[in-house]
Amino acid sequence: xxxxxxxxxYFGIGVEGISKPMNLGAVLRTAHAFHxxxxxxxxxGFNVREVLASDTSAAVDNMPVHVYPDLAAFTLPLGCRLVxxxxxxxxxxxxxxxHPPACAYVLGAEKDSLSPALQARCDFIVKVPTRFCxxxxxxxxxxxxxxxISLGRFAERPVRVGGPAAPLAAHKRxxxxxxxxxxxxxxNSA
Length: 190
Prior knowledge:
The chain has helices at residues 21-33, 48-54, 116-121, 136-151, 177-189, and strands spanning 10-16, 38-42, 65-68, 81-85, 92-93, 102-107, 124-127. It is of the alpha/beta class. It has one domain (10-151): SPOUT methyltransferase, trefoil knot domain (Alpha/beta knot). The longest helix is centred in the C-terminal third of the chain and has 16 residues, at 136-151. Residues 14-145 form the tRNA/rRNA methyltransferase SpoU type domain.
């Protein structure tokens, strides 16, 4: 498996109202492992020392972690789509969802849902199709894994169970698109 997948775009992940430091530490550590560009909390209450005890990868030293006191202060980079992870009747099943190239995923707190105000700010709401709710850090990990296998560059899965994997095709390099257009224009005028 490719240890450094080539994704286009970037993503961040955060939690609204989280209160258990071990869960936040797990989200941060997993986000760091999946090459997240940033993490965030909105209206969270946690002890930083306890978070660092479960974030064994020192994610806070390796990527930006934004702490927003409330939803009014919450901002995202220009062009970044917000994707809520929540079980609602109209949520998109994760296996049927196409991840935006630039987005931030947001989870609700333990024993709670995303607030209606935050859901209203989301461009999309997705759900992990399970029988019942899973731990928020597990749900975040599943979404990040789905993003990686959807947007990453991996060899095709074999058709047979356990069959040999096809080798990863070599990356095709070429001239930048603007240069290709320029050459095409030159060739058409000649």
